[in-house]
Amino acid sequence: xxxxxxxxxxxxxxxxxxxxxxxxxxxxxxxxxxxxxxxxxxxxxxxxxxxxxxxxxxxxxxxxxxxxxxxxxxxxxxxxxxxxxxxxxxxxxxxxxxxxxxxxxxxxxxxxxxxxxxxxxxxxxxxxxxxxxxxxxxxxxxxxxxxxxxxxxxxxxxxxxxxxxxxxxxxxxxxxxxxxxxxxxxxxxxxxxxxxxxxxxxxxxxxxxxxxxxxxxxxxxxxxxxxxxxxxxxxxxxxxxxxxxxxxxxxxxxxxxxxxxxxxxxxxxxxxxxxxxxxxxxxxxxxxxxxxxxxxxxxxxxxxxxxxxxxxxxxxxxxxxxxxxxxxxxxxxxxxxxxxxxxxxxxxxxxxxxxxxxxxxxxxxxx
Length: 367
Known about the structure:
Layout: E1 7-11, H1 16-27, E2 31-38, H2 59-73, E3 77-81, H3 83-99, H4 106-125, E4 132-134, E5 140-144, E6 147-151, H5 161-164, H6 169-173, E7 175-176, H7 184-194, E8 225-228, E9 234-238, E10 261-266, E11 271-275, E12 281-292, E13 302-307, E14 315-321, E15 327-336, E16 343-348, E17 351-363
Parallel strand pairs: 1-2, 1-4, 2-3, 4-7, 8-11
Antiparallel strand pairs: 5-6, 8-9, 10-11, 12-15, 12-17, 13-14, 13-16, 14-15, 16-17
């Protein structure tokens, strides 16, 4: 199909990456339309700090910037109202998971259900026709074992495959990542060359404006509780479990003869379990909600590289099938602060084989 007849809708955030993605596609003679999500409903009182985040009052400025970019590129622009969907599938999910003692990853859910789900459904509902969807993510799409899979971006410091692993092979077949072969520095150079107003815009990786997600729980009662060691002995008091994450060291307010870390959040008993760094290491994990793209099925053991959080280098591991469609991952070397609720993503070199949600940690004693 000629490029002029290939219709690509680009998800715009008001930032430099999505702006350049749209500009590159337009320059390649695709039929480009810009769309952006409207997700902030004002129900949470959030203080801006100068850098906009995914969810916050600065959204209107981002929308205006996206509209201005589309005007400069001479492409249509539409705003899609996803406030209800975002609250239900991202905000409420985040709060429920946190209150259950796990640490969720809102970006993974937002990509899967909002950006590559409801956003496109609603775009079609209002009459926008397109053959593919593009974003400013740093990732690549290739064919692997006859399937469309994610491949790491050329810029290792900006690679975002960890956040995108839940996309299916079918979704990837209709997706474009124009920045996958570029570095962030090159992207900014392109933006400056094209005179885009987003060229020097400071970016924020925060989920909530200001980085303080506890604002989501405003108005809910969180009582103080005990901070205990693994034997149950009281070490101090916490100020509400939503203020703590697994592996956290600072802010415990406990005088001790060694550094203490959060080992476990126990919502049932309103307790935080703390201990030494050595107690944070685990042999492996059980993952559920699997999405396998590079593997047709998890029918045997595979040697993989596993990534257990964004700022974590992949490490050697073995993945095997587990009961009820789950995955059993054992690391060659123990890993620190494996966190239930977060995602584990499996790689073979630069190819994403799949991933899932960390459900359970395997203690060193079970290795």
